[in-house]
Amino acid sequence: MKIALIGATGFVGSALLNELLQRGHQVTVLARNPAKLPPREGLTVVAADAQDAAQVARAAAGHDAVVSAYNPGWTVPDIHDQFLKGTRAIIDGTKQAGVRRFLMVGGAGSLFVAPGVQLVDTPQFPAEWKQGALAAREALNWIRTENTLDWTFLSPPILLQPGERTGQYRLGDESPLMNGEQPGSISVADLAVAIVDELETPRHVQKRFTVAN
Known about the structure:
Layout: E1 2-6, H1 11-22, E2 26-31, E3 43-47, H2 53-60, E4 65-68, H3 79-96, E5 101-105, E6 112-114, E7 117-118, H4 127-143, E8 150-155, E9 159-161, E10 170-172, E11 178-179, E12 182-183, E13 185-187, H5 188-200, E14 207-212
Parallel strand pairs: 1-2, 1-4, 2-3, 4-5, 5-8, 8-14, 9-13
Antiparallel strand pairs: 6-7, 10-14, 11-12
């Protein structure tokens, strides 16, 4: 497949880029600073600002899918507004490019831990992640109204960490997966496996899903 990838220099995006290339997909990365990405077989890097829908549209045209692992950075003071601005531009740019398949990596904060209660609204939710998580939840609410895109929204498990690629994971939907009484976890490499599996064999079109080992 020809995949347009946004956020390829980030924690999730870099693992996703590796997985896509290892499986032989052609990947076009949209990057503000293309010099951050060394040349690799199957990789094309295009200078583009993810917060500009027209630039996203130009770079994404002719691709089979757009994958967004966009995050302006957890240390950005206005991460909430920046995240939403970028997400809106990416969605609009994808539609302008005529690409129907869109997969977005969001956060775990919008998963339901009890009826009507999302993780981000619990007292235990870490303050340093809250604004980004609230923005990701708002983005999920936006994307649920989309009927022109074959969208998928992936919420990672509560614990997402470095680690080896096992190729194994469990699937969930609106609630976090658990390991007994403990929160579920996954390595970022296995999260990338789940994303590329969904691209190759869609099982969650116009749905949100989550994963854990």
